[in-house]
Design goal:
Length: 251
């Protein structure tokens, strides 16, 4: 699961960066102001209205850039990168072309920004899932596959956004290919970290095997429109982890 004037060299460079995709996502939940039980609703209505207006002014607003990123992601994910033109994105986002080019000098820069944003959201979602309940190190490792199953069963699942990018921009040195690859490398690095935390032997080899199982499950689940490959992937991962644990204990 945005405007156009001229952008600085520094801003342009930041969009072209294809590694170290990292940013902090800002979110704020507006506080609630419960009304005293003894209070008269009519008496306090003006105050409540003033507070509501103040909250609305302070709440983070969706910018034109955000609208473009969200619309572009939805269309790229559904229809493909090459098949989705700038005019279609502008029409769906309700944004003027000059606004687009204030933030992105080209479609390539827009794609890179979308990849960066989706990578950031992915990390946050993945981290929240693993931290949602207490798990042993082995359970946290298997949690990767529980997260995978949950995602694949979701209505918005249409395969992997980053796999699609590498498939459409096949030259390994292409900036878009590199950005998608950097996301995958970071994700696989997280799997290696979980393997190491579990104290399993051959951490890198096992992590590479588990990452391969994840990627294969995504492709197969999308191909047949079923979460069954992801369920099989979890079973395969459990067997790999069990075997590594047995090897570590000398059995």
């Amino acid at each position: 699961m945005t405007a156009v004037l001229s952008i600085s060299k520094e801003e342009s460079a930041s969009h072209r960066r294809v590694s170290g995709i990292s940013a902090s996502r800002l979110s704020a939940e507006a506080p609630r102001y419960p009304m005293p039980r003894s209070a008269s609703p009519a008496r306090h209505a003006p105050r409540v209205a003033r507070l509501a207006r103040a909250e609305a002014r302070q709440a983070p607003k969706s910018t034109k850039r955000d609208q473009l990123l969200e619309t572009a992601w939805r269309l790229f994910y559904r229809d493909g990168y090459h098949a989705t033109g700038i005019d279609r994105i502008l029409a769906d986002a309700g944004v003027a072309k000059m606004t687009l080019y204030k933030h992105f000098r080209s479609k390539e820069e827009l794609i890179l920004a979308v990849l960066e944003k989706r990578s950031e959201l992915f990390r946050e979602s993945f981290s929240r899932f693993l931290q949602a309940k207490k798990r042993t190190p082995d359970q946290r490792l298997l949690g990767v596959f529980e997260w995978l199953i949950s995602w694949i069963k979701s209505k918005e699942f249409r395969g992997c956004f980053f796999q699609k990018a590498m498939a459409e921009y096949q030259e390994v040195q292409d900036p878009i290919h590199q950005a998608a690859l950097a996301h995958k490398a970071a994700f696989h690095g997280e799997i290696r970290r979980l393997v190491a935390e579990a104290g399993l032997n051959r951490a890198k080899g096992l992590a590479d095997q588990l990452a391969l199982v994840v990627e294969g499950a995504i492709v197969n689940s999308h191909a047949i429109g079923s979460s069954t490959p992801a369920l099989h992937a979890k079973a395969a991962a459990a067997a790999l982890i069990k075997n590594a644990r047995r090897s570590r204990n000398g059995r």
